[in-house]
Amino acid sequence: MSGAAAMSGELDPGLAAFRDEVRDFLDTALTPEIRAWTARQAGVFSEGELCRLWHRVLYEKGWVAPSWPVEHGGPGWSPMQKFIFADECAKAGAPKLPAMALQMCGPVLMRYGTPEQKAFFLPRMLSGEHYWCQGYSEPQSGSDLASLQMRAVRDGDDYVVTGSKIWTTHAQYANWMFLLVRTATDGKPQAGITFLLTPMDVKGLSVRPIISISGEHEVNQVFFDDVRIPVTNRVGEEHQGWTVAKALLEFERGGGASASDLKAQLATARSIARAEGWWDEDMAFRRRWSELEIELEALDVAERQTAAALMAGQRVGDAVASQLKMTVSTLLQRITELTMGALGGYGAADQRDALGMGANVPPVGPAYALTPTAKFLNSRAATIYGGSNEVQHNILARILLGA
Questions:
Q1: Strand 151-155 vs strand 158-166: parallel, antiparallel, or unpaired?
Q2: How far is CA 141 from CA 28, 137, 222, in A?
Q3: Which CATH superfamily is domain 251-401 in?
Q4: Where in the chain do CATH 1.20.140.10 domains reside?
Q5: Is-contact 189 149, C-beta < 8 A?
Q6: pTM here?
Q7: Annotated active-site positions, please?
């Protein structure tokens, strides 16, 4: 796919046929029940039960791990096929699966895991038997991840781990965690970090919910009280976990397709404004909407160019990844703010009891008033998680200055 084609969105016949195949599949696989449950989701990822259901549907199709090679059970897609699949899922409103296993830990194990680790963990990630969470951030170590303090002391064939992890997404659903621990305190902070894997039902591990301002239980704090983790569950060499962690972040921030999801949210803002009578009367609102529409078109082109570059075997680089991450997170916040403006007084209603798959409480006001407030509140964290905007600016500054 050429640069010109990437900018215009044109596809060659083979990719166009693949896109049509994805659309046909989604038309059938996204049942009315799944669509209804997805419409009640306001978090970054769908709830655990819905994730498991959609994971199973994609697994049976052979499409649950778009980035995985054929030898590990993946479809062996090209970067452009992966982009098309993500793009069509966003357009169709498919449930959002967590990235921790298939997009992050799985590729890390393929690169750094032992043959035994690959044979045990990869098939279970693929099937959904293992539901993973990420143990990176700590109460005093978030974007400055190298400052983490959770200690792991070698005791024979085990590491004894003490401390806590925080903002652990979906830890309440997970049965496995990958985590970073400190195994040495001398030298540079990065030099004493080790990458481990642990089951969640091990003695001494406990999960405490953190309820977000939107009322959702999406993140948690996880406590380790002398938890024993076998040395065989170490990925890579001792003290070399920072190298593994950097590779994982590379997978996390790889070429995505966020523009279509954001376009759908922007379209929702317009439909609400029309229903509430704002659209024809408020020229300032329409101007802000149009500005966002233009910026989303630019983001769409940038994401397609990134996919085309990856398909051509080029490296995207940290600068592009940081720029895209900042652009997506700030656009998300601006779109949710605009949607709240369109919603008017309904935006003040606390809808938390009406959210989620098991809720049987009707929304306050029309159906379109159910999720915008929760999405607005949830998106306040978008410029923090996954590397704060301040960190991304520092990355760009170091690249530009050659530091």
A1: antiparallel
A2: 44, 6, 14
A3: Butyryl-CoA Dehydrogenase, subunit A, domain 3 (1.20.140.10)
A4: 251-401
A5: no
A6: 0.89
A7: 252
